[in-house]
Design brief:
This protein has about 240 residues and is an alpha/beta fold. The chain is built from ten helices and six strands. It folds into two domains: about 140 residues, Response regulator (Rossmann fold); about 80 residues, Arc Repressor Mutant, subunit A, CATH 1.10.10.10. Helix 7 packs across helix 10, helix 8 packs across helix 9 and helix 9 crosses helix 10.
Length: about 240
């Protein structure tokens, strides 16, 4: 069962409001105590990804501190679902596995940061505050991976996304595949989604971009990317 720790008057507008998602009650308690001592408001706790999504969609915290390995629904899946249901809620992923591949997957799923659990618990308030202020919270090695990935971005800009756009991370994944001329079936296979879910994402993409066809959506994506692509690539 999810644990809600919220009292009237606890949260102030200038305080970061956080939900902790971790299946280890001792870890949750340790993190909660550390955050609260630093002035961060812990409004709820969850022991699995499903509860984390439900609580975050209901309470709309500033950030969810999300563990990767949890029963039922893992943290990566929960991050993806939360990006769709409550795109305004930021997710900072914590993992016992200090693996850049897991970090890259977390960021692709919509997280604003990724940290290994080997970091000091005392550093979490600073990390959460940085994420709340719009900073990317990643390790030096993961930063290097991100830079390498950017350098290898295809000429047409597929994979690059503007900082501000009406689309969710999942919708951008679908749009990237549309830009590569993938069919509905191919998108469903690549993202492990049902055909109906893909069609629903495409419908939302067309509506949000104010276009009437997949080709127009591709053209709109190129316009959105024009501000972040080098001049020599903008005409591609």
């Amino acid at each position: 069962m999810p644990e809600v720790a919220r009292r009237d008057g606890d949260a102030k507008s200038d305080h970061v409001r956080v939900i902790i998602a971790d299946d280890d009650p001792f870890a949750r308690r340790t993190v909660r105590d550390t955050l609260q001592e630093a002035g961060i408001v812990v409004i709820a706790e969850a022991s699995n990804g499903h509860d984390a999504v439900q609580l975050a969609a209901h309470y709309t915290p500033d950030i969810v501190l999300m563990d990767v390995v949890m029963p039922g629904m893992d943290g990566i899946t929960a991050t993806r679902k939360l990006a769709e249901r409550a795109p305004g809620v930021k997710v900072l992923v914590l993992s016992a596995n200090d693996d850049d591949e897991v970090g890259m997957l977390s960021l692709r799923s919509g997280a604003v940061g990724f940290l290994p659990k080997s970091v000091s618990v005392a550093s979490l308030p600073r990390a959460l505050t940085a994420a709340h202020n719009g900073e990317a919270v990643v390790s030096q090695s993961l930063t290097a991976r991100l830079i390498a990935a950017m350098r290898n971005t295809p000429v047409d800009g597929v994979g690059m996304r503007p900082v501000r756009s009406p689309l969710t991370p999942r919708e951008w994944e679908v749009l990237d595949l549309l830009c590569m001329r993938a069919s509905t079936e191919a998108i469903a296979d690549a993202l492990v989604l049902s055909h109906e879910t893909v069609r629903s994402h495409i419908k939302n993409i067309l509506r949000k971009l104010h276009v009437g066809s997949r080709q127009q959506a591709v053209e709109a994506a190129r316009r959105l990317r024009s501000d972040i692509l080098p001049p020599e690539q903008q005409a591609a």
